[in-house]
């Protein structure tokens, strides 16, 4: 079975030019450039949940924002159903913005505190013309039901809900637009662990029943493993490994994926102990190393790694970007 990808991300780069400090301006030093994404290659298949993991500062949110159209990439392309979406304008931009919905860590900041849940949902439904007349009210009830909030929730304000309930309201508002794809950036990271599970399980259920495509960005590997069909590991703004969740977590190929998983708390509490951190520091995205972005921290780095950036190619059950993918111990 070969399906066409819903999203194809091709050689995507995003640089931010930092404002110059006064001292730098006086000394005529060049502006600093942050390379947040450096040639991301990624296919997202329709109906899958793709986890995106990597250390803080690796570019996960920037990638999510580019896909959701909130950042315009500096170079490269994003294809949605085969059509480039980077330069979309007008009605086509609005149609894309409806079909790809971004959800944030704290819906409290994106929910208007002076609007009841009903008003917020009605607004979302009518702005995009999803329903009209009496159907709008019925749709509000349906949405609350989908995210398991009681009917009485409709006439309350955001501050009257707990964090987990607010996250459900955020999901309901995203679903109001009947999206094809949800981009969840650290959706539950701010919630208590017990509440995280409820929200994540709800998301998985909705993904399944509504056939949604979900990009699940998170730094918590256990959550990602639980929800994702496939997982992409990102390092300094590039995908270094991608593959089916089970094999990738059991037998990661790329030395960075191995280090990232080894540094994470064990899934089995009996085996939980202090884990070694990944050797060395994350290089600054102001100064991305040439060659393999991981070579300064990699125990297997050879001469070629300092010169040539490895491309993603078949390795293990998926793809990995490492010159020595086949030759590594245990590969
Ligand atoms: N608007 C911005 N202006 C300047 N630098 C940014 C901006 N957004 C992100 N960055 C930088 O890009 C890099 C990647 O950030 P981000 O995508 O937020 O990573 P993550 O979500 O993986 O923690 C970081 O170095 C961050 O400081
Ligand atoms: S390409 Fe070289 S430096 Fe990069 S991960 Fe592989 S062995 Fe390590
Ligand atoms: Mg982030």
Describe the structure.
With 331 residues, the protein is of the alpha/beta class. It has a domain at 229-331. It contains twelve helices and twelve strands. The strands form two sheets. It has an eight-stranded mixed beta sheet with strand order 6-7-8-3-9-10-12-11, with helices on both faces. The chain has a four-stranded antiparallel beta sheet with strand order 2-1-4-5, covered by helices on one side. The longest helix has 18 residues, at 193-210. The two termini are 27 Å apart. Bound molecules: adenosine-5'-diphosphate (ADP), iron/sulfur cluster and magnesium ion. Adenosine-5'-diphosphate is lined by residues 16, 34, 36, 54, 56-62, 285. One of its GO terms (biological process) is transmembrane transport.
Q: Enumerate the distinct ligands.
A: adenosine-5'-diphosphate, iron/sulfur cluster, magnesium ion
- Count of extended strands: 12
| Uncertain stretches of 5 or more adjacent residues | none
Q: Give the overall shape, derived from the CA principal axes.
A: globular
Q: Strand order across the biggest sheet?
A: 6-7-8-3-9-10-12-11
Overall structural class, as computed from helix and strand content, comes to alpha/beta
Task: Kindly estimate the percentage of residues that lie in beta strands according to DSSP.
Answer: 15-25%
Q: What about the largest sheet?
A: 8 strands, mixed
Number of helical segments with 4 or more residues: 12
SSE pattern: EHEEHEEHEHHHHEHEHEEHHHEE
Percent range for helical residues?
25-40%
Amino-to-carboxy terminus distance: 27 Å
